[in-house]
Design goal:
By secondary structure, the protein is an alpha+beta fold. It contains 14 helices and 19 strands. The radius of gyration is 21 Å and the shape is globular. The protein binds flavin-adenine dinucleotide. Flavin-adenine dinucleotide (FAD) binds next to strand 3, helix 4 and strand 10.
Length: 452
């Protein structure tokens, strides 16, 4: 795609899921690999970036004044059901994959909280699911990545081949090249139902104890971000396992994946949440949860409850919202309570919280999970007091040996980022080899000193 043609492509405003930041770019795609290689070889001013479904919360999938490729490729799925392995193009969504895989008794080994992510975006963020403690992140399940690198070369990366390039790309937020396709290992399932235990916990200690002792494959907790005093950190734990055999009465037609059609969220002129509504919403959520219940749930219900309303981010008002997701080592569990209390103190109106217990992880240098606790809190963007508090919390998280999740971030500063992720010498060396002219760029990358 030559310069003349590119000049005719109008600018578009791109935003992340949280809609607090935005920037304008020329958006093109899908392109055939040869056209893409030509584009990269032309070293576009302000660089190039691949974008997936725009489900990262901040500016990771934006490239102000430059080119953005979206979609990168047409959706393409090549399944080897006997080997439980799939080769899939970068712009295929998890929703498309699930519909294809489940009838074969196969499932993606890692499912983030929404099915509307692309394979490229999931690899670039090295996503985790409710089973991170048992199954690790996507990194563990990737056999190979077909990457059109920033130097225009098409490389097939494996962990045992070019390990540094593989590790720099998984979790590398699109800054090493364009993921054209990947080959993934899958897990086998015998039923499209899970046995789920839901348990209500009156405080943070009880909630953490439930997650700590969980033996199920999947474990996650919704946490009441507004509860105070002795109820601080109360919540509801969800523990899930796949059924070992099909349930003939509940699934007479065999395995299937059929999420119901989600209604589109209304656009709200004002923000939905303030301290009062956030508190009422959380109180209601906690009260309506059973003390303890075992039930069978389908895959969409268990994994992707948030997808029940399409584009729910639009209902949160024109100013959008922030998510603060961090992970700290086990010894620093006090940081979780500290963050909850601090957000309440500045009237931040946190309306949604999720707590996970992470296990060991061998992702790339920019991968997020570490053994310990991860808390994610959604809240309105707030004003200077909240901004100041979040900087203070960044310091606490960094001092505790923790880090903020880049896929959710829209605001982290460079100093705090360096303190959390380190000098990243390996990552920078691998990127310099794959993208010597610094062609792959993003707003997040510029903000954090990862690219020019
Ligand atoms: C409701 C909700 C729940 C979520 N729950 C979880 C969760 O449980 N666990 C979790 O880990 N994450 C979770 N996320 C975050 C989400 O999984 C990541 O942000 C993911 O990267 C989004 O994928 P995407 O296709 O939308 O990518 P985008 O947001 O479009 O892009 C994200 C990054 O990927 C890069 N990228 C995209 N495509 C390519 C490609 N083809 N080649 C190279 N780079 C590429 C972009 O440059 C960018 O840096 C959640 C997000 C939402 C909205």
């Amino acid at each position: 795609m030559g310069t003349v043609l590119r000049a005719a492509v109008p600018d578009r405003l791109l935003q992340g899921w949280g809609r607090t930041t935005g920037s304008r770019s020329q958006v093109i795609g899908p392109l055939e690999p040869d056209a893409l290689r030509e584009l990269i070889a032309g070293r576009p001013g302000r660089g190039l970036l691949a974008r997936g479904a725009g489900r990262s919360y901040g500016d990771a999938a934006q490239n102000a004044g430059g080119l953005v490729l979206a979609p990168v490729t047409p959706a393409r799925i090549e399944l080897d059901a006997a080997a439980a392995r799939v080769r899939v193009s970068g712009s295929t969504t998890f929703a498309e994959l699930l519909e294809h895989l489940v009838p074969h008794g196969l499932l993606l080994p890692v499912l983030p909280g929404t099915r509307h992510v692309t394979v490229g975006g999931a690899v670039a963020a090295d996503v985790h699911g409710k089973n991170q403690r048992v199954d690790g992140t996507l990194f563990h399940w990737l056999e190979s990545i077909e990457l059109l690198c920033g130097d225009g070369e098409l490389r097939t990366l494996t962990v045992d081949g070019d390990g540094p390039a593989f590790r720099a790309t998984v979790g590398g937020m699109g800054l090493t090249g364009v993921i054209l396709a990947v080959t993934l290992r899958l897990i086998r399932i015998r039923s499209s139902l899970l046995r789920v235990t839901v348990r209500r916990c009156p405080d943070l200690d009880a909630l953490m104890a439930e997650l700590e002792s969980a033996t199920s494959r999947y474990a996650v907790a919704w946490i009441d971000t507004t509860a105070t005093g002795r109820s601080l950190g109360r919540g509801v734990v969800d523990l899930g396992d796949h059924l070992a055999a099909p349930d003939p009465s509940a699934e007479p037609d065999g395995l299937r994946y059929g999420p119901t059609r989600a209604p589109l969220a209304p656009r709200m002129p004002l923000g939905l949440f303030n301290p009062v509504t956030a508190r009422a919403f959380n109180e209601l959520w906690y009260r309506r949860a059973p003390r303890e219940r075992c039930s069978l749930q389908g895959l969409p219900e268990f994994f992707h409850r948030l997808d029940a309303v399409d584009r729910w981010n639009l209902a949160l008002g024109p100013r959008g919202f922030l998510q603060y997701q961090f992970a700290v080592p086990l010894r620093a569990r006090h940081v979780v309570a500290d963050v909850l209390e601090s957000l309440q103190r500045v009237g931040a109106a946190p309306f949604l919280g999720t707590l996970k217990r992470f296990g060991p992880s061998r992702g790339g240098p920019l991968s997020f999970p570490l053994p310990g606790w991860s808390l994610a809190v959604d809240m309105p963007p707030g004003g200077p007091r909240l901004a100041e508090l979040l900087h203070e919390l960044d310091r606490k998280v960094a001092n505790a040996g923790g880090r903020v999740y880049l896929a959710k971030d829209a605001r982290l500063g460079r100093v705090a980022f360096d303190a959390m992720y380190g000098p990243l010498e390996d990552w920078r060396a691998a990127r310099a080899r794959l993208d010597p002219a610094d062609t792959m760029r993003s707003d997040l990358g510029r903000r954090l000193g990862l690219c020019r």
